[in-house]
Amino acid sequence: MTIKIYDTTLRDGAQSEDVSFSVEDMMRVAAKIAELGVHYIEGGWPGSNPRDEMFFQKMKGTKLGGAKLSAFGSTRRAGKAASEDANLLKLVASGTPVITIFGKTWDLHVREALKVSLEENLEMIADSISFLKANAEEVFYDAEHFFDGYKANPEYAVATLKAAKDAGADCLVLCDTNGGTLTWDLAAIIEDIKGKVDAPIGIHTHNDSEMAVANSLTAVRLGAVQVQGTVNGYGERCGNANLCSIIPALKLKMGLDSIPAENLKKLRDTSRFVTEIANLRHFKHQPYVGDSAFAHKGGIHVSAVMKASETYEHIKPELVGNFQRILVSDLSGRSNIIHKATEYGIDLTKDTPQVNHILRTLKEMESLGYNYEGAEGSFELLMKKVTGKYKSFFQLEGYRVIVEWYENRRETVSEATLRINVGDKFEYTAALGNGPVNALDNALRKAVVAYFPELAEIQLIDYKVRVLNAGEGTTAKVRVLIESGDGDGSKWGTVGVSENIIEASWEALVDSIEYRLLKEA
Questions:
Q1: pLDDT digits (tens, 9 = 90+) for 324-358
Q2: What is the pTM assigned to this prediction?
Q3: How far apart are CA 58 and CA 506, in angstroms?
């Protein structure tokens, strides 16, 4: 059996506090999600805002592979015929093959939010679906607040489903709108309605109780044929069910078909693409697709996964487009060091004396505040220095940084002067920057780029400062982490530690440059 995946990133996901998609963003995200092989892509609510209306206009005639585009809306207004309801007419005008509408299931909402009788709400559901069914290939009914409604008045909650089913709804989607239903309660309710409503059911859960994925998978186990969710679990409040966890669980854990099996390897790429378009940071600890999902730090763990990856990995990371990472820290053992040496092209075995030297140096450096988990460029340099693989490209004689404030322009100007030796050549340079670190970076590049033209491609991507002993106030030691990249898309991190933020930054900057040069050596 194939479980149909219904993506609502562009509608429910866009309601996340930190997410705002433009029309162009929506079109790019829709195309990317379609490549993943989902069955339905919900594009928004054309009756709610001009942006969503513009999206549907631009999407007319656009091919999304095997995915069908869906418009979203609500049942008709009370006292108005469905054929005259402005929102329903906009749904039809969107031209999508699929239309999804939600209706009130909880009697509390019917009385207090809609201010209509229970019977009239049933008529609103039936009229809306009948009208839409005559104008679309498929119509799905989202039973809003179904589980809360069922707990309060089970007979009426079931009556709303029957009204939708009798009007021609192709799937009845049970919604945990408040996200507060625990998995065993959800399971009991689904079991209870099985004999009362004979129609395909779907599931739409929110994550307010950290149950969205578990609830979705449980619903499938109990017969749901459609799962609604968002990429990365984006959504209002605590988010929606995360399709990046649901999709691999369906195939790899439950043995059920959803997206094409060969497309699973696109999952991590899709996750990161949507994150970038949303202008958010990647959640590194996200299951399956996060950077840390298959990262190993403890020495015992590393030793085991090097022998058999399944000892500490529940699936092969390549199946979802991810990869195994071995971290280095003061918790590392010899296995971590040997594994990283192999990555760096350094020939070490467990019997090589330098392994213990590297391990001792690592632990000593981390006790001083260094952290190499996000600075593997610096760690590779450390290993090469210990093993004699390091080559020095330039030597610092000294630097000076001046920061000036111009009151009349309300502007800060930073200037760095630098004295270094490159081979047998002495270079004395000066450069301006929008801050002292930027000025130092500019001065260093200016001094060495004539000797090493490839450095012109390096870009500083990220710069982080962490106070290590906050109780010391302004004399506290700081750790600077720098992420750099170049034209071929590669990225690397470097670290510096000092009581002086400029010195720590300089250390990380030099490591960044030397790491890039050693790659060419």
A1: 876 665 555 666 777 777 777 777 777 777 777 77
A2: 0.73
A3: 50
